[in-house]
Amino acid sequence: MKNKIIILLAIVTFWGCSEDFTELAPISNRNEADFFNDTSDFIASLNASYAALQNPGVYGRAYWTMFEMRGDNTDQGPDATGLARQYTEINAFTEDPLNEQVGAAWDGSYLVIANCNVVLSRIEGVEIDATLKNRIIGEALFLRSLMYYHLGIAFGNIPLQLTPFIPGDELVQVDASAVYTQLISDLTTAEANLPVSYPASDVGRATKGAAATLLAKVLLTVGQDSDAATVLRRIVDNYGYSLVPNYADLWGAANENNQESIFEVQYISGGIGQGSAFSNEFSPSAILQTGQGFGRNRPTETMENAYEAGDLRFEISMGTTWINEDSEVEIQNYVRKYESDPPTENDSDINFIVFRYADVLLMLAEALGESGESYALINQVRTRAGLPNIDATTPGTFDEKLLNERQVELAFENHRWPDLKRFGVAVQKITQAEPLIDAGSIRNLFFIPQRELDINTNFVQNSN
After folding, report:
1. Measured between alpha carbons, how far is 275 from 201 in angstroms, rounded to an integer?
2. pLDDT tens digits, 142-151
3. Considering only 18-27, 154-163, 219-228, which range has the smallest mean pLDDT?
4. Which of these, 396, 359, 350, 400, lies nearest to 381 by C-alpha position?
5. Do residues 207 and 198 make contact, with C-beta atoms less than 8 angstroms apart?
6. Given CB 3.0 to 4.6 Å as the disulfide criterion, which of 56, 164, 299, 456 pairs with 61?
7. Residue 304 pLDDT > 50
8. Which pTM was predicted?
């Protein structure tokens, strides 16, 4: 889909969001009598939703601050001035309802939801090829569900808007459990509607595997392990994914959308506003070839110590360099998975991998619980990493071993905070990694952005 993505920025601008964003409605409505009349209109609007995943409020920035830095994988380091202050607060659980990164995640996620709601509301009344219509519905349901999953994990109590917002409607918060129930239904439909794969010209669109992976993740989140196992076996048996032989071959622009990839946010460089900023955000300037490196999202000592000796994933995932800051030499860890040499600053061709097959194998082990089959699934992942097999006699509980494997295999891919919450160990892991963070200050949910409370006076702020 990268050959099409050049047109998407203009479309995203067209489907902008309202000033009071939670109205969930596009601000600009090109004469609707002239739009949503044929297939190309719906594809264009869907493309806008895909492109919006690039935004700083979604995968471009806010998600890695809220789902990696919130946990014990990364932090901001000693720099806590300017923009870095917002990251430091998220990492330390000291952010308030005015934190801009948290607000951006709310806005960016609901922008995608608003676009998808328009597609879903208009397509039923249009006569187009039935197979293509079902595919468009499946894509829109997947993208909307992907946003609602992140909003549910982050905020819990959110408005579940499934139709275009009409000014004057009252938005009502619902508990995350109601959100997940809706997602199970929507993703079941999406999986049924979507193809297993696409021709090269459309690589990057949502597939059966993408919908099923998110469905399984939701089912695990609500404790429906048996149902999750059924879905995950379907992915393993029917959808054609496999681990790439070498962990290093997962990363870099030349390896994108490979046999292990299930869904990626597509970026393209070239000065068209569609490149990714990960290389500049994560790399220290000392090792970056183009522009400034900000050294954000820094792997913690806890993350470094999670790797076993000889783990081939370590040097591919993170590095360490010496930084001269104000004449003081500092050792700094940094994320390597998104390294590149962009032609200009913040204009990398590097995609963001949302789901991949190794996650499916580890989720299936989780769904099955401790068993010989589960250890065999984990050991598929460990073997590629150059590590020996583990089994029931290996020290630690099954959950401890599995969670550690997820930490090192999926490091810096936005899985850590949801994992800590799902396994019920957020307080334990964070206080071990950050002893200065008091257990009583660790909250399961982010604050609802203050602007949303001001606009929607019936909203209740999160307290835990």
Report:
1. 19
2. 999 999 999 9
3. 18-27
4. 359
5. yes
6. 56
7. yes
8. 0.92
